[in-house]
Amino acid sequence: MPRPHDTIAALATPAGTAAIAVLRVSGAEAGRIAGEILGRAPLPRVAIHADYHDQAGGLIDDVLGTFFQGPHSYTGEDSFEVSCHGNPFIAQKILEDLLARGCRLAEPGEFTQRAFLNGRMDLSQAEAVMDLIRARSERSLAVAQQQLRGSLGRRLAGLVDGLLGVLARVEAYIDFPEEDLPPEDQELVASELDRIIEETDRLLATGHYGELLRDEIKTVIIGAPNAGKSSLLNRLVGSERALVSTEPGTTRDFIEERIIAGPHGLRLIDTAGLNPAPAGLEKLGIAKTLERAAEADLFLLVLDATQSAPDLPDLLAARLRDSNTVVVLNKMDLVQTLPAARAPASLPFVAISALTGAGMDELLNAIIHLADLFQRDIGDDIVAINARHADALGRAQACLRGARAKLGDKMAIELLASDLRGALDAFGEISGRIDSERMLDRLFATFCIGK
């Protein structure tokens, strides 16, 4: 269990050899430790070059030290950062010395946890820190940066403010059981609940996009044996990742690689060819192909331009739509004109040659276009909730819909208020701030209770 009053220290950069390493200290003793190491009382936010001596006087390294005075620091506490040469041995020696000077080794995420506890960020922003670190594409980086700057928090604040207004209006009548909620108040409450429900739906709809940003877009390459799926994978990856042979059915298991397509991160999955009469190991490979296809976000259906289009398994064909599939007509270097058969006819297609690279720019543009469709437009901010947010929003939405139904059925106002409080608590879980005092302030400001 983290002890919040301890002064903590840890390596803030990845372990391993690098040009520099950064160690971070946070807590009440940070200023004292900084003064001991730098040989002078540190000025906030001023980098000081100094020789780092351990407590026995031994020289470890020459470093840059910077002191950040709370609350104007990452954690909201006094903090001290040491930049040294990126030799793991040097970094370890400095860390050992910091521990000897009174620090405790920080637990995972403890610096960000303190930032949350000290009001420097809400929970959704704290989660965005890790999303920012793990971002693998331009779009996932942009979303993490916006969330770190409070995009989700601002959306939630608007919902909470509206909900507090509704709850204040409803709570005002609980102590007066002989009075029903007046018709004009019922209309206002119903209208505001409908707005909050609609906005919550829009936030929930960003959940799938959030999964794609964090786990990347699963893009499955499917097609008949020897259609050129592995050649296409190699062309997209830019290296000979998969073995290519004129013998059909050489891919018996799936191969997975990551690529960047425009602002999007893709997990490319090359699968076994869809042979209508497989045998032995190839049959097992096709079973895995269908398993991967069931989890896919996008499909690249590779067709051989020199052959007729194959029949696809019914379950697979049912998943292919113009919003998630690009038909890749391969081997165009072997034909003079586009073949007449391009199945399924309703799907967009791009003609390429995986051998020569012709048409690859058009294919990438088609993939980017489909990937763009996953983003849900909810205003100027890009919002993509995670699984925890989705769970809390789902519970809030259930409470809101319950409250709306109770209002329509003219049920007891106490039951309506209970649902509204449940929704407020669920919203509060996302930011980590459930503030009932705000509701009381709104209540007394809006109504004259004693009149």
Walk me through this protein's architecture.
- This protein has helices at residues 30-38, 88-100, 110-117, 123-134, 138-148, 151-171, 183-204, 207-215, 229-237, 281-294, 314-317, 360-372, 387-408, 413-431, 436-446; strands at residues 8-11, 18-26, 48-53, 59-68, 79-86, 104-105, 217-223, 255-261, 264-270, 298-304, 325-330, 349-351.
- The chain is of the alpha/beta class and 451 residues long.
- The chain has 3 domains: 8-117, 2-Layer Sandwich (Gyrase A, domain 2); 132-206 and 382-446, Up-down Bundle (Four Helix Bundle (Hemerythrin (Met), subunit A)); 215-372, P-loop containing nucleotide triphosphate hydrolases (Rossmann fold, 3-Layer(aba) Sandwich), CATH 3.40.50.300.
- A 6-stranded mixed beta sheet has the order 3-4-5-2-1-6.
- Helix 6 (151-171) crosses helix 15 and helix 13 runs antiparallel to helix 14.
- The chain is flat.
- The model is unreliable at 439-451 (pLDDT under 50).
Quick description:
Helices cover 44% and strands 17% of the residues. The protein is α/β, with parallel strands linked by helices. The strands form 2 sheets. A 6-stranded mixed sheet has the order 3-4-5-2-1-6. Strands 8-9-7-10-11-12 form a 6-stranded mixed sheet, with helices on both faces.
